[in-house]
Amino acid sequence: MHTPKFPVHITGTHGVIIPEEHAVPFAEAGHKRIHIKAFFEDQQIEFHGALRLYQGNYIVSFGKRYQKALGVFPTDFFEFQLFENTTTYGVEIPETMQAVMDSDPEGFSYFKKLTDGRKRGLIYYVKRFKNDQTQVDKSLLIFENLKRGITDPRELIKR
Q1: Has this prediction a pTM greater than 0.85?
Q2: What are the residues whose beta carbons fall under 8 Å from the beta carbon of 126, sequence distance 6 or more?
Q3: For the segment 112-143, what is each residue's pLDDT rounded down to a tens digit?
Q4: Domain covering 6-84 assigned CATH 3.30.540.10 in the classification
């Protein structure tokens, strides 16, 4: 499932209104998380986000980091294209974190018990590090803390 490209702009506090003709098929199919491609001039970015109904409009968050990566300002018009999210947790898992998951079945079993939002938060936390070794180290730390019974997200990322 996917849409053609369609024009959008930033509204309110870093949100993009998705026209109903593009949003409703995803909502009716139960897709709360979607894969998004954004296009502006010669730039393109991809990200995963939540499709939310807010005050009668379907909205996707489009924060400053995405605006900067795409090179858009709140006054610019640009294009979106929506795709069905086929990821397990609503976000792409870094290869380094997947390797830790595969090598630590006990830690992974604790990870699977977390809420979907907490899982995504931890994946985003690991993804923000560009260095592969740092991603591995952070993933290992999270899994070790999970095995010690720690579930508080602030404590999961501490030594």
Answers
A1: no
A2: 94, 96, 97, 135, 138, 139, 142
A3: 999 888 998 899 899 889 999 999 999 999 99
A4: no
